[in-house]
Design goal:
Chain C: InterPro entries: Multihaem_cyt_sf. The complex is a heterotrimer of chains A (357), B (409) and C (209). By secondary structure, chain A is of the alpha/beta class. In chain A, 31% of the residues lie in helices and 13% in strands. The chains are: A alpha/beta (357), B mainly alpha (409), C mainly alpha (209). Chains A and C meet through strand 2, helix 8, strand 10 and helix 13 of A and helix 2, helix 6 and helix 8 of C.
Chain lengths: 357, 409, 209
């Protein structure tokens, strides 16, 4: 697992103005710098970035026993057994996070509490603040997506934007979106399609089709989860509580659309590249051994913004909106274009439609 | 009662710790393999499942393959339970304790394989009903958890009751254990069907989404399980004074034969469906049997399995051959290996190939994965040896409760 | 005999009730398909509190109404670097070529349709360079240049109005702000250039070997 080899090619051929101004280490321009940051010993995975608090065994033991004896709450406020307010606080956060419940079943207060704990833990460790949200679904909103096959040119700006927005592991090059390059005249032949091309696009005689999590209305993946760590929210988003997932990968086997990803090793994002605008169910830092997937950028979509892939697409092939709003563009597409979905015969009811001009 | 139990534990510890040189060598060997397995597992814990050959394309591999196969082995103990306890066929009485010991060992291995396959073993408490969130009845995995643990409980408690009585020199009361035995018969069919449903219920994987999967699981289990029991009984016959009649082995041999034949018929039915009118759902089967787009990692495995299966079934079918013990043992080993390949690798891996969008990524287990697997098998053998040694000593009357010794202490 | 009959009837009753309980999935949230669900749920639709305003307020937009669609498009004239055009274009092009005036966009080469179909004055108004003009000579404001495009590209125009062509800016929520034709297509060279993909996944190659 060496970090020295180049992990991906990130060309910056226009269309990403925001990036150019915001970051000096965008990996496209200064690869050397970026990867030396990768290999530095301080590099921590997502889980450690949240939880790894420097604490020797003795204090840890003290804290654990103290918490067990007189309750975690009392420790931080009154007990003078342990030294240092910060380490005391860190230990308590760790303790409470380890034994918290399933996010889906939490009350609003509990959700707020865990989000605050996670944000505070990050602050204690890095000295930097993240904006971690627990915003819930809004009534009268059901998210849907449409993909214009004739418009997609295979530039992969969406894939890039997704990785940067959602803090995916850079080492394994995890990507939620796959763009399949298909040959003209062969129909939608996924078997012969290439989802990992690297040549000038659009290639002569080819067309492009993107897949990701389709946020099925009848999702097979949530049904099979033994611990309800994944579920469908009221606004149609299929989400995962990373802290509740046990990593059995049953959902992965159940998904007919290759929509789910697993953290086979510790996910790593260089500190400078971390998107600090996060949602508990979305792009917050993950740990190894848990599932993750596209959430239609819940941290953005619930705030009213378009998902990163939609915003990044230079051709307008991606359309996102509220299916319940009769005036939305997505509704216009569904009602006026000849739309279809993949594997409709499975009865999964994806909320992701394809159409052509 | 409690003092009897304490004494049983002490006595069996005594029995376990003493034995011939061969026995000690065997146990040392198993311990060594287990240590290697544990070392491999710590590496996996530290680096994550990326040290295995599994990927996003093939997300279940060697662990789940072995798990699936061993559920079958565990279920097979029942094939001996039924005639012994329910039909009152005394012939099997000797074999059944061994069979149930085997079931316990197999179940422990099953659970170990599942835990080894988990991404987050430290949060497995989320799965405990009551403390965690148990997605019952929606998730077939929760059914499987109940089925496996229930079966484990039954298979520990029945033999324990019988041995406990025998240890005290009393006879086991049939009205106590027969209902339990009956339940275990149903339960055994249940665990295997439920495990098959785990795969069968996935519309995403046409290779598994197949009504014959459950019944075929049963047939192959009832061939592989008793085949293993025959081999183990043969070993015990040679290595201890525990008497196992020829009749018993022959009867189990018949069970193996019938199950192997049914298994073959079902195989033919499956092959016919996949290859007579192939749809794109047959691609996994094509991959398994003939390879797809030049990818053919499973070919040697599956053809070895099928030829072994055919030879074994043929050998078993003829009474003369089957009644020759050397041939019986040979056929049973062939069958056992054949079904291990078929119900393990041959079932789990092609389910993921080709992937949902037809992508073919092959799977090869890594050394660490194999190390953990061997370690778990050694654990199973270790557990079984301990159980069998104690049970045999009790059954032979070498281990008996002595009131005086306990009171003196 | 009578008793037996009674028991039978009772049983039939129980079973019917049971099967009714099991089979009738009259839960509120169950629909035959997602389209049914959308239809049923949007009947009672009322506007959400989420709006795009927060995300688009810094944009300089104008409101347009085309057919039944009303939405916002970016204001254009402010973005053109040397608007108004008449600041330079006060004399005919031929005369300007010789002068030492500011060389703004001499490099423009028209690659739109072919030379039989289009030239500069297909869109630009030779008499008033601050305006565009339709084929029939009707003046068109630079802000509403889409009216020019829609003369030929009527299908794209329909899709654009509905939202199937083009890009909705920043937010999915109403009110809608859509990019207009010239925000993505250079009117003098409207096709998209081919380029290299932004990303290449080297891990995936290993996986497939």
């Amino acid at each position: 697992m060496s970090n020295t080899t180049k992990k991906w090619f990130s060309l910056n051929l226009g269309s990403r103005k925001e990036n150019a101004s915001s970051s000096s280490c965008s990996c496209g321009k200064k690869e050397g710098d970026c990867h030396s940051a990768d290999t530095s010993p301080q590099q921590k995975d997502g889980f450690d970035q949240v939880f790894d608090v420097p604490m020797d065994r003795r204090t840890a033991f003290k804290k654990l026993t103290a918490s067990l004896l007189i309750g975690a709450g009392a420790v931080s406020t009154s007990c003078s057994l342990v030294s240092g307010n910060e380490s005391k606080e860190k230990a308590q956060i760790d303790w409470e996070e380890q034994f918290k419940g399933n996010y889906k079943l939490m009350s609003e207060e509990e959700k707020k509490a865990t989000v605050e704990r996670l944000a505070r833990s990050y602050e204690l460790r890095t000295g930097k603040t993240i904006n971690l949200s627990s915003q819930g679904p809004e009534e009268n909103v059901l998210f849907g997506y449409a993909f214009n096959i004739s418009k997609c040119q295979g530039y992969m700006d969406c894939v890039n934007a997704c990785v940067e927005e959602n803090n995916q592991d850079r080492n394994s090059q995890m990507q939620y979106i796959r763009i399949h390059e298909m040959k003209d005249g062969k129909g939608f032949n996924f078997n012969e399609a290439d989802d990992n091309y690297y040549h000038e696009v659009p290639a002569e005689g080819h067309f492009y089709m993107g897949t990701q999590c389709f946020h099925c209305d009848n999702p097979p993946c949530t049904k099979v989860c033994p611990v309800q760590a994944t579920w469908q929210e009221e606004d149609g988003l299929v989400v995962i509580d990373y802290d509740w997932c046990v990593g059995c990968r049953y959902c992965m086997a159940a998904c007919p659309y290759d929509g789910r990803r697993f953290n086979w090793s510790q996910p790593e994002v260089p500190e400078a590249e971390i998107n600090k605008n996060q949602h508990y169910l979305g792009n917050r830092l993950r740990k190894k051994g848990v599932m993750e997937k596209c959430t239609f950028c819940v941290q953005r979509s619930r705030a009213g913004k378009n998902p990163a892939c939609v915003e990044a697409c230079p051709t307008g092939a991606r359309i996102f909106g509220n299916l319940l709003d009769p005036n939305s563009t997505i509704r216009w597409v569904l009602e006026n274009k000849k739309v279809f979905r993949l594997k409709e015969d499975l009865g999964t009811e994806p909320k992701f439609w394809y159409f052509m001009d | 009662m409690f003092t009897v139990f304490i004494s049983l534990v002490k006595d069996s510890l005594q029995a376990i710790l003493h034995g011939s040189k061969k026995y000690h060598l065997w146990m040392a060997f198993l311990t060594f393999i287990m240590l290697i397995g544990m070392y491999c597992y710590t590496i996996q814990l530290e680096h994550g499942l990326s040290v295995t050959g599994m990927t996003d394309r093939v997300s279940w591999g060697l662990y789940i393959s072995n798990f699936t196969f061993l559920v079958g082995v565990a279920a097979a103990a029942v094939i001996l339970v039924m005639p012994t306890y329910v039909l009152k066929d005394i012939d099997f009485k000797q074999a059944v304790l061994i069979g149930e010991g085997l079931a316990v060992a197999a179940l422990i291995m099953c659970l170990a394989f599942v835990v080894a396959d988990m991404g987050g073993p430290s949060v497995l408490w989320h799965m405990l009903p009551g403390i965690g969130v148990f997605n019952f009845p929606d998730s077939m995995l929760t059914w499987d958890v109940i089925a496996l643990n229930g079966y484990l409980f039954i298979n520990i408690s029945i033999p324990f009751y019988i041995l406990f009585r025998h240890y005290q020199g009393k006879d086991a009361l049939s009205k106590v254990y027969v209902p339990g035995a009956l339940l275990s018969v149903l339960w055994a069919v249940g665990i295997h069907l439920v495990t098959a449903f785990l795969y069968q219920g996935l519309q995403a994987r046409p290779f598994w989404n197949n009504a014959l999967l459950g019944p075929r699981f049963l047939a192959s289990a009832f061939a592989a399980g008793p085949a293993l029991i025959i081999l183990v009984l043969a070993l015990i016959r040679y290595s201890s004074s525990f008497r196992i009649e020829d009749k018993t082995l022959k009867k189990i041999g018949i069970v193996v034969t019938v199950a192997a034949q049914i298994n073959l018929i079902m195989l033919v039915s499956e092959l016919f469906k996949e290859f007579y009118a192939p749809t794109h759902h047959s691609e996994s089967a094509y991959y398994l049997f003939f390879g797809l787009h030049g990818k053919k990692a499973l070919l040697p495995w599956i053809w070895t399995a099928i030829s072994m299966n055919l030879i074994a079934t043929l050998l078993l079918t003829f009474h003369k051959l089957r009644n020759n013990f050397k041939i019986l043992y040979f056929a049973c080993s062939l069958l056992f290996i054949a079904i291990w390949i078929e119900k393990g690798f041959g079932l789990i891996v092609p389910g993921f190939i080709p992937g949902p969008y037809g992508k073919i990524a092959e799977y090869t287990p890594t050394g660490i994965e194999i190390g953990v697997t061997l370690g778990i098998w050694a654990l199973g053998a270790f557990v079984f040896t301990i159980l069998a040694k104690t049970a045999i000593k009790i059954e032979l009357g070498q281990l008996r409760y002595k009131k005086e010794t306990v009171s003196k202490e | 005999m009578k008793n037996k009959h009674k028991i039978l009837v009772n049983w039939v009753g129980y079973i019917t009730v049971l099967s009714l309980l099991i089979s009738c999935k009259h839960h509120e949230d169950e629909y035959h398909s997602i389209t049914d669900k959308i239809e049923a749920k949007s009947k009672s639709f009322h506007a959400t509190s989420t709006t795009s305003e927060l995300h688009t307020k810094h944009l300089n937009t104008i409101k347009i109404t085309e057919g039944e669609h009303t939405f916002l498009i970016p204001e254009r004239t402010g973005e053109i670097t040397s608007f108004a055009c008449t600041e330079c274009h006060s004399s005919p092009l031929k005369e300007m070529k010789g002068t030492a005036s500011k060389k703004a966009h001499w490099n423009i080469k028209l690659q739109h349709a072919d030379e039989h179909t289009m030239n500069c004055i297909s869109c630009h108004n030779g008499d008033n360079m601050d305006q565009l003009q339709s084929i029939t000579g009707t003046p068109i404001n630079f802000n509403k240049s889409y009216q020019l495009c829609s003369q030929c590209h009527s299908k794209q125009f329909t899709d654009w109005k509905g939202g199937a062509h083009g890009k909705q800016v920043k937010s999915w929520a109403p009110p809608r702000t859509a990019l207009t034709c010239v925000n993505c297509h250079n009117p003098h060279k409207p096709h998209f250039e081919s380029k290299w993909p932004v990303r290449y996944n080297t891990q995936k190659i290993k996986e497939r070997e």
